Amino acid sequence: MFLFLFSIVKGIESYRRTHLLPFKELIQLAPVSSRQLFQTLLFSELIWLVFTSLSTYLIYFLFQYDIVQTHDLAFWLKHVNVMLTSIFLFIISNKIFGAYIYNIVVKKIGAIRVLFFASIALLFFLFGRVLILNIIFPFYHTFQQLFQSISSLAEDSFWITLSNKLISLYQHDLQQMHHALFSDGSVFLQFQALFNSPITLIVVILGSALVMRSPVRWIPTEKDQDQSSKHFRDLFYWYFQVLHKIQGLLFRQNVLIQKDIKLLKEKRWLLSKELFNYMFMSYEAFFYIGVFTGLISIIDHQALQIQLLFTLNIMILANQSYEMRMLTPSIFALSAEKKNIWLYELSQISLLQFFLSKIQLFYCLFSIPALCLLFINLSIMTVYQLFHVQMLIQLVALGIGFFIFPLIQLYLFPFTTKFNFIHEHEIGTTNEELEIIDKGQAFARNFLVLPFMYYLILTSFLPILQQSSGLVNVLFAIYFAIVSVICWILCRKTIYKGIEYVEKNKIFSIGE
């Protein structure tokens, strides 16, 4: 089952390299058909997957070889079927996801997409609440009842008693799960039995051949005139109308931001898939909301509830800025301005101003998710009656977090500048770039986010800390403000050094 999920995920991840061509204008000159070109790209991805994930497949085979006593023809037939099925799932998931992206790029984004996003977001929210209320809290409550002191953790009797209580607590659910999976005639056992049949081998091979021979549609990356007409004014169009208004309010007469918003609008192929996660909030944010509202609902201490909401705000802002940077790295990178940098140099606009406009663009994009989070805060405050003066610390989290988290996502971008790329969608996605940027933003987040999470965990095991939650809330706000100012200063200094690095080492390689 793991191999199947692994193949599906890898097939989906590789859609850009099989459905987006770096030199699309050369398709007409290619001596082979589009289908043959797609097959070549897909086979190269499949070979790359096998070589880069060889250890995964070896572990699977060694494990299966070790636990089975007889290694007859049926054993080898089963695992040949498993391997071929995983290849088939890789191919079909790549094909289906590429077709899905094509359709959402060329078709209008309307009410159905909104309902789909709302449904998935609701599922993530409910999953977070169920995880807390039905799984984690019963475990924590049982642990808390038995926990007397730190020294009790060293006693065997404590862990034996805890194990027995947890078994009795979850025994019914585990028995139901075991019965559903392994009872006679269960779907799981019937599914496993399929791989013992030679018919499966034939079906998988024929299925792969049919999928490979099906027509292919390249995802359009150029600006489509039809999508700019009045008849194609969907939610994507109106989102950018709102962005222009926000840009006019926050940064008037900034032609650099206006230019970037226009470029981003033309990247419909890039944004269509995750538009609502980009425009509002990611699914992960809704999961966090479910987790923290579940915690708030089982805690009676109001100051601690406010503390939980403060931590929730910081986690969502940090995660949302990360998700937005990961989705559109090229729009924030100097690398994508390869053709424009010399023009801006001639217009007496410094490279520093050029990059600062990228950060300001991030603030424009980030303003809508921040407003959505403010609305969620007001809703939580109303539902849980959190009408207290200490709720003002949420404004500290939202206000400071709005400015600091986009900055820590972008401050290392100048150091990853490169102008020798084939296609723009490569920018910000290579392992070298991701390693530098992710480590840099993770270092800052270690001081801006993790301390609040650690304190909440500590509070859950040391109830005496709950008595000082009111004072801690004030200290939280002060700490967050001070660390944010320090990060702001360090990030700005790093940006200056990064711009100097680009001017000295990279800018003259544009013409190479």
UniProtKB/TrEMBL annotation:
Keywords linked to the UniProt accession: Membrane, Transmembrane, Transmembrane helix
Transmembrane segments annotated in the record for this chain: 41-63, 83-102, 114-137, 187-211, 275-298, 304-322, 361-386, 392-413, 447-465, 471-491
Species of provenance: Bacillus sp. BS1807G30
Name of the molecule in the record: ABC transporter permease
Signal sequence coordinates: none
Keyword Transmembrane belongs to the record: yes
